[in-house]
């Protein structure tokens, strides 16, 4: 039994891959853990996990960067996203949004179930996230999603990972580092380098228990 580390893109975990002297590719075997690079977005993530998830894994560790709705969270903060929601799954009724739950044919919100209590995890702030196909980037859409779901973070994969883990009853942990605030798009304000550095430092500490 070993963990499966899941990330959308190689750059997000390149420091970790180099630290363990592994070679960058889509699926990496190592004695202590395996690594799956899914590609960005829910569809790519669900497809890749559908191919690779199996009972040989005792934990899925989803690593990545994320946007934060909360501007009091400094860029580079590493957070534990314990619940995640498919924010766009449902129907529009003029100005109203009807969730898949309210429509009666699905579930939009998932929890990252695990029984891990080690210091690396407990030191992290626990937050509720949403998962989207389109990065929120207008005052109007940000206000609407904040009023409806009041999320702390936004990514493009999280809820898909939690969904796959619930379907297969495999414990799950979603750890992301804040690269940007969710605001009208301005990539100059993002700090992807800091977020990736802090994310990888956390992950290396967790995997080596140092
Ligand atoms: O431009 C780069 O150097 C670079 C390096 C590594 C990764 C990226 C990405 O753009 C990763 C995309 C990934 O990031 C997540 N993300 C980050 N911020 C947000 C957001 O505000 N809303 C939604 N998703 C966000 C997302 O999970 C993407 O898969 C670039």
From TrEMBL:
Known pathway: Quinol/quinone metabolism; menaquinone biosynthesis
Catalytic activity: futalosine + H2O = dehypoxanthine futalosine + hypoxanthine
Pfam families membership: PNP_UDP_1
A GO cellular component annotation in the UniProt record: cytosol
Domain annotation Nucleoside phosphorylase: ranges: 38-196
CDD domains the record matches: futalosine_nucleosidase_MqnB
Coiled-coil regions listed in the entry: none
Keyword Phosphoprotein: no
Molecular function via GO: adenosylhomocysteine nucleosidase activity; methylthioadenosine nucleosidase activity
Keyword terms of this UniProt record: Glycosidase, Hydrolase, Menaquinone biosynthesis
Biological function: Catalyzes the hydrolysis of futalosine (FL) to dehypoxanthine futalosine (DHFL) and hypoxanthine, a step in the biosynthesis of menaquinone (MK, vitamin K2).
Protein name per its UniProtKB record: Futalosine hydrolase
Gene symbol of the encoding locus: mqnB
């Amino acid at each position: 039994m070993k963990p499966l580390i899941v990330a959308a893109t190689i750059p997000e975990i390149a420091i970790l891959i180099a630290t363990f002297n592994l070679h960058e590719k889509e699926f990496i075997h190592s004695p202590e853990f395996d690594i799956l690079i899914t590609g960005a977005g829910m569809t790519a993530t669900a497809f890749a996990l559908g191919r690779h998830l199996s009972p040989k894994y005792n934990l899925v560790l989803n690593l990545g960067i994320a946007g934060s709705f909360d501007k009091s969270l400094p860029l580079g903060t590493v957070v534990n996203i314990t619940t995640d929601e498919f924010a766009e799954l449902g129907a529009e009724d003029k100005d109203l949004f009807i969730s898949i739950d309210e429509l009666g044919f699905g579930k939009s919100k998932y929890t990252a179930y695990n029984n891990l209590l080690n210091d690396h995890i407990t030191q992290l702030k626990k937050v509720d996230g949403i998962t989207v196909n389109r990065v929120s980037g207008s005052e109007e859409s940000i206000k609407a999603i904040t009023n409806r779901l009041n999320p702390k973070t936004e990514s493009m994969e999280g809820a898909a990972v939690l969904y796959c883990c619930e379907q297969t009853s495999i414990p799950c942990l979603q750890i992301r580092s804040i690269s940007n605030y969710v605001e009208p798009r301005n990539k100059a304000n993002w700090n992807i380098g800091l977020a990736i550095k802090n994310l990888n430092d956390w992950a290396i500490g967790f995997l080596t228990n140092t």
